[in-house]
Amino acid sequence: MTPAIETTSLTRRFGELTAVREVNLSVASGQFFGFLGPNGAGKSTMIKMLTGLLAPTSGSIRILGEDLKDKSAELKHQIGVVPEGMALFGRLTANEYLRFVGAMYGLDRATTLQRTEELLEFMNLASEHKKLVTDFSHGMQKKLALAAAVIHAPKVLFLDEPFEGVDAVAAGTLKTMLQRMISHGATIFLTSHVLEIVERLCTHIGIIHRGQLVAQGSLEELRAGQHLSLEQIFLEIVGTDRAGNLAAGPPEQELSWL
After folding, report:
1. pTM
2. Residue 100 burial (CB < 10 Å; 0-12/13-18/19+)?
3. Cα four-point dihedral sign 69, 182, 164, 167
4. In a designed cystine with 86, which of 20, 110, 117, 145 is the match (CB 3.0 to 4.6 A)?
5. What are the tens digits of pLDDT across the range 6-58?
């Protein structure tokens, strides 16, 4: 089966800094894929390249079997994105915003109105029809951003820290929608620092460290027969032992007043 996401020697440099180095990544269709890494490891740079927001310095990207460089416009109609900053239009209502997004994806008016109504009900935002997006809470904005990312029924969904700052009720709503998308054959590419959520949702994991892909596979493959949590696997791979102590690097330091 053709991978939903595939990169070959993907590299991105910013001057003398190499943020992503020679990454060969493969995500099968229908997978819930968790992409992990420490701060500054290259996760957001990867998502920006995979969604066409940032051109790679070298290497190639294939989405749904097509070269992103050659078929960028067509492929962007097949993917959805929830960026970390969300980038919502704050002076619109939720209804106005979703209708605008639907129109931008080329949906006809009837389909856009129907899906907008269903999404607002599902996200518990229908009662906020007069409130501007800028007045929404952080969790409400996250739900609206996800609604906008799926209104056109994307085949591949990219999520950059979708649960950051979201309460338990909103997080439960988001998880329900994501699991429903997977059951209908979509592919989800998720980055998050909340490893417990990734472990519960994702079937396959990739770990990037200092711009390089250092691990990739199913959770069972990464555990290698050991009873390890995802946190233990992650800490072991990025340079700490299972107790969370630094395996290499500078000696531990203490604060004089603690």
Report:
1. 0.90
2. middle
3. positive
4. 145
5. 999 999 999 999 999 999 999 999 999 999 999 889 999 999 999 999 999 99
105 near 76, Cβ under 8 Å?
no
Residue 189 to residues 16, 125, 248: CA-CA distances in angstroms?
28, 25, 31
Which CATH number describes the domain made up of 1-78+154-243?
3.40.50.300
Sequence letter at residue 170: A
Q: What residue segments make up the domains of the chain, in order of their start?
A: 1-78+154-243, 89-153
58-95 burial, b if ≥16 CB within 10 A, otherwise e?
Answer: ebebbbbeeebeebeeebbebbbbbbeebebeeeebbb
Annotate 112-143 with b (16+ C-beta within 10 A) or e (fewer): beebbeebbebbebeebeeeebeebeebbbbb
**Greater pLDDT, 86 or 203:** 203
Mean pLDDT of 211-217: 95
Q: How far does Cα 161 stand from its chain's mean position?
A: 6
Assigned token pair, 32 = 């819930």
Q: Which two tokens stand for residue 188?
A: 């989800």
